Amino acid sequence: MATKKYVAAVDQGTTSTRFMIFNHSGDVVSVHQLEHQQIYPKPGWVEHDPMEIWERTQDVIKGALEKGGISPEEIAAIGVTNQRETTIVWNKRTGKPYYNAIVWQDTRTKEICDELAKDGGQDRFRKKVGLPLATYFSGPKIKWILDNVPGVREDAEKGEAVFGNIDTWVIWWLTGGPNGGAHITDVSNASRTMLMNLETLDWDDEILHILGIPKQMLPKIRPSSDPEVYGFTRESGPLGTAIPVAGDLGDQQAALVGQTCFNVGEAKNTYGTGCFMLLNTGTKPVQSKSGLLTTLAYKFGKEPAVYALEGSIAITGALVQWLRDNLKFFEKSSDIEAIARTVEDNGGIYFVPAFSGLFAPYWRSDARGVIVGLTRYINKGHICRAALEATAYQTKDVLEAMNKDSGVKLEALKVDGGMVFNELLMQFQSDILNVPVIRPKVAETTALGASYAAGLAVGFWSNLDDLRKNWIVDKTWTPKMDEETRQKLYKGWLKAVERTFNWVE
To answer: Which residues is 48 bridged to in the sheet?
Structure first.
């Protein structure tokens, strides 16, 4: 029997899927990544093809094993992490989706949310679920599919149509699909549906009734790291042998675990398509008064669940992609830094990327993107610079809200995700927050966190201290900006944000 040298994770993100294999020190041994199609049927609508995502998942698993010359028998366990809130309803007998996956960025459920808010306002369910009524979450997306796709409601009543976010979909297929696949999710993903009660960690019957969602559609909620394992991969599947699938975390919670933020008051910020800051608040949920989300951070086995405050920003890295793809400003996303460096500062402009409304701490689905302060002096360099600065300003908005809610003053910010290799952005981030910004050696903390969850479940790592030992600093940025400049720049940003409100009637 092969010795178990590795733990692996499927990291299913908004634009691509990858399979990453890690050793005991948390180093990446092999990785394979593939993009999938972004489907935009109408303005504000964003979809993915669930079958394409499952095909990509199988391909990246095979690819990473081949590249690393690794035999599946050497893998101790598999974890899954995923773009959260993206919603699939499929037939559990055939495995066929009734409709494309409705992506977290999609805003078609605005009318459903507005209708629900008529009774009790935007915070109608916040006390129970920690979330405002917003197009972001899965619950209203499920309702939209039930209301708009013929035949789904009947099948759901019969128990044939089932719901899952992408974690549930991938785990169901990995563990057998129509042939006995495990229909499960974990507390972190369930806490993003607007349907899970934060206290009971179970589906809330009252909210299900109000939204008209049959309970039998929903997956069973399990710990994020589960020694009882969710199921085993199948011989017919991409791994060709039975490996325990034992870890499941939404991507942002996975990054918190990958950054080993296990103590109260530790925070991380992930710079991806969007930006997500999470602060560990311990074993009691903290309700936000400043527009943050109260969310589940993780639950390891029988230990009490750990909660977090989260600030979600919809558009950060996606803004760089937009400049690349829609405006053809540069060839590769990484080119933005060189262009932004051709100017000294933003030239007095601000770019607020409210492409699908504003998320935390504003929650304005009526907002749309603006560039303000334009003069004849402005060139491409200023626009690129303002685009990068937008990410740092949005992060500051969230940090201010976290300080208010938790009373915890952040001492340093751990960062990860694709944009943390942009030196200009990281320095500006430290300047505008006035705290050190720290990048760890392994910046792929999302996949790492899911691997940690799976590895803990099967004893590959014995405890949290094992994981803490793996966390090593790669680079630290410290603030170099004077307070007067910091205040002035941020004041301009807040003024620009106000200009985005009330655009959509």
So the answer is: 101
